[in-house]
Amino acid sequence: MSITKQDVTNLCEIIKKLYLEDDIPWVVGYSGGKDSTATLQLVWLALSELPPDVRKRKTVHVICTDTLVESPVVAKWVEISLERMKNRAKDTDMPIVPHRLIPDYNDTFWVNLLGRGYPYPHTNFRWCTDRLKIKPANTFVQNIVSSYGEVILLLGTRKAESANRARTMQHYENLRVRNHLSPNESMQNELVFSPIENWTDDDVWLFLMQYKNPWGHSNKDLLTMYRGATEDGECPLVINSDTPSCGKSRFGCWVCTMVEQDKSMAAMIMNDSEKEWMTPLLEFRNEIGDAEADRSRRDFRRMTGNAQVFKGRLVHGPYIKSVRETWLKKLLMIQTEINQNGPEEFRNLELITIEELNKIRQIWLDEKHEFDDSLPSIYEEVTGRDFPASRAHIETSFGKAEWQILSDVCHALYPDEKLLFEMTARIIDIERKSSDLKLRRGVLGDIEAQIKRGFFRDEEDAKIFTLDKIQRKKNMGASYDKKAESEEEQLSLYEVEDNL
Predict the structure, then answer these.
(1) Which residue ranges make up each domain of the chain?
(2) What predicted TM-score, i.e. pTM, was given to this entire model?
(3) Which of 142, 172, 420, 454 could lock 182 by a disulfide, CB 3.0 to 4.6 Å apart?
């Protein structure tokens, strides 16, 4: 049975009653999709029926988390929506305040992928969700709790979304101490109100088509966006790591590699010729998420420099320098092409922000000791503009020329020592940066760590050495990592192949 006008009226009465019961501030999770739009629209509709002086009782914060890698079309849609929301709330004296949240620049997708070289997110290493979505939202909510002691979070979650979602919502519904308000599993002093928890997809669309958007956005255009793709999912406000990936959703990240194929973006491009300009984004996303090619793009050592074996095979770590540089160049090329030849409304699109570029440069220089400082030249080559550096002074005693000389010497004298150049460059950079006596504390330990990183001749040497060490521990009866052994027990120590 579809919802009726009376159902909407009854729900508005519940919303007004809950709003007037206490002084606890409200926070509404908004993504621009159908469920969050319906939820916020209900709240707006209900509060508009209260006298102006009464509805000023407390603020309703609307939070929208921009991961900085949202689908450009949806990001633009939400940007316009938030601006209209802010203006209409001010004009109509509504207690609604929209907030666009972004991750800390140290946590963004590109800073971790291109800067630190994190492998692309997948089911066994889902590093993106917490950094891009959970932390920004939780930080905002925690600040509200710190100021007011409690908060009520309004979400567009529905039991009809999935069986797992229904079970979870029912579990917390059984723990309710107040009508309609469930405890939040991940945060104290936070209650969750889901106004449309019992609605179906049809109910949501019926409501949106019959009730005009109160802040001036078009619900019909929203429906058109959904029709433009095969998937009909929405990326909700993510408040814990158990929330499913938004990879199957049009309202998610365009770089999402949590699914094998981004069918929704592909469908948007296929179904609408005006969105063909996004094709390079889809192709770049597919290149990043290429599982077969990924192993060869990564260092055979972990982030710490240690060699680790799992089932007879080295566990590869971060992306190597050349891969990170190549991807940055491609990303900037795509951005430049869109800025110059894309739709008018996307001429200022930033696929990667200047703040992120400066953070990546800092990581390459300070953490990875890549003193050739290649990022500014990559930026200038692609864009034709000077790189807008945020650091007032970059040490330039060594640079690209010295980097090349050192590389040539190391490879000429010791062609079989694959790691010699990297180790030498890191040691030189550490010594250079600690030339001041005040900065020399711990320098010997740092140099020793780099020598250990460069101890091996190459990947095969590292694997043989690590397996041999494990075998010695096993023979001596000492504890060892059993997960390091090959699944084929009859395989001899030096015949282990990379065949996973």
Answers:
(1) 5-273, 320-383, 400-453
(2) 0.87
(3) 172
